[in-house]
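Question thread 4412

I'm putting together a teaching handout and wanted feedback from people who do this every day. The idea is simple: show students a protein as raw sequence, then show them the structure tokens that encode its fold, then repeat with a second protein so they can compare. Below is the first pair exactly as I plan to print it.
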Amino acid sequence: MAIKPIVYKNERFKLSYDMLNPSKEKTLLFLHGWGSNKELMKQAFGGSFPDYRHLYLDLPGFGKSENEAVLTTHDYAAIVSEFLETVKVRADVAIGHSFGGKVATLLQPERLILLSSAGIVMPKPLKVRAKIVLFKLLKPFGGDTLRELFVSSDASGMPRNMYETFKKVVDEDFSGTFAAFRSPALLCWGREDSATPPEAGRKIAGLIEGSRLEFFDGDHYFFLRQKDAVVKAMEKFLETV
């Protein structure tokens, strides 16, 4: 593990990262999802793709990377870009899971691999909609205490700045961003994913011209249990574009 400090909008960020196969010419950049960290991505892919340099990054506020600011997804992408310039690495392929998929798309890599990416706003279940209405009604009386009771599990226990960040990024519509992406893209999705359901994958595939969508058994973290099948699909994609 290494730490690289960068400055973005007068804020200092200490970013934690791991680099595997550093002598290889082309780089795979792995970006984890919300509430996760680089170790999850390394667990899934660290033993694969021996012909590529691997770069695993903890996004600001996750894992061992620091953050005290309120950020947007575009801020995250700008921070990652600044980080890449600082470590003098070009990300030939960006691989993003969930929230990391939105960040990866904004980086405009030559090749993009999305693993159950966020970015498509899907209708919320009735239970969630009712919870939101109840929270808004009771918010004047509860403050932070009610926030802990009603907040999504994705943001539970997070510092105030990360909760505010979560509110900014959770319901972003990235349809325009996906539609504007012009490089080869592979979309891998879990058939039983309830966080970013299969329909979201189909919509993104329809927006990214020429993209390929493949489904695998499993939920939002399908790539952990279906590692071999997912890696095989990724290898095929990297060989044919």
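The second pair follows. I'd like the answer to focus on this one:
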Amino acid sequence: MSDKEPQLLHLVFGGELENPAEARFKNIDELDIVGIYPNYALAEKAWRGKAQQTVDNAHMRYFIVHMHRFLDPDGDGKF
């Protein structure tokens, strides 16, 4: 990645939900912060791995957050 390319950072995290139909965590102190990745492809790979590890627990969910959208909501590369 060159210095001129935008950094499209993605956060992968998850935890146990109170109800599988809602994104409300049972205990936010126990969130699993998987990591921050430089692109969606790597984030999806990490997300998929964690999701597959917890497939037997219907209350466990992992998410990908597009951090770059929060850092640069206008998409113009200026903060």
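Top answer:
Good format. For the second protein you could add a caption like this: The mean pLDDT is 89. The longest helix spans residues 40-53.
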